[in-house]
Amino acid sequence: MPKKGxxxxxxxxxxxxxxxxxxxxxxxxxxxxxxxxxxxxFLGKKHTEKYKQLRSENNPMKNLIIIKKxxxxxxxxxxxxxxxxxxxxGGISFEPYSNEFNNNLKxxxxxxxxxxxxxxxxxEKDYKTxxxxxxxxxxxxIDYNKKNNSLSNFITLCLNCHTKTEFNRDSWEDYFRNLLxxxxx
Length: 185
What we know:
Elements: H1 10-25, H2 49-54, H3 60-77, H4 103-112, E1 138-141, E2 154-157, H5 159-164, H6 169-182
Antiparallel strand pairs: 1-2
């Protein structure tokens, strides 16, 4: 609720009205809309024919939406935890790195790769997020073995590209091995 004497902008009123509508749909509704409160948005408008067809019972996409919502519910309830998660690999992510995998080794690998991501070719000095915060490049184990610290097992990646390598691991391992062979490293 706004403070007494506080003049709200139209944008603020729209955001609050939207939040109240969402809360009402989700069952978190507290009390109701105040008398005289403007409900902005869809009030007084009609659905288009295209939208009505999308929402009809005959539309196969409607089933996909329902399945997606069920999966989201399963994830929220925590059914996919640890051993039950499809990506579980026996807890290897909890194993510590060896002492050899230190900052000196990381700098050596980055220097070898000229401080650039080997997938998207962004340099470390240009690597910033949308919030303009600078990030360092990551060092990736090509064979996904934390204990294998040979120089031919590392490659420099930015955070976005490093995240991509968590899926289809076999194909990424082959890709990076071939990339290093081309560079004669």
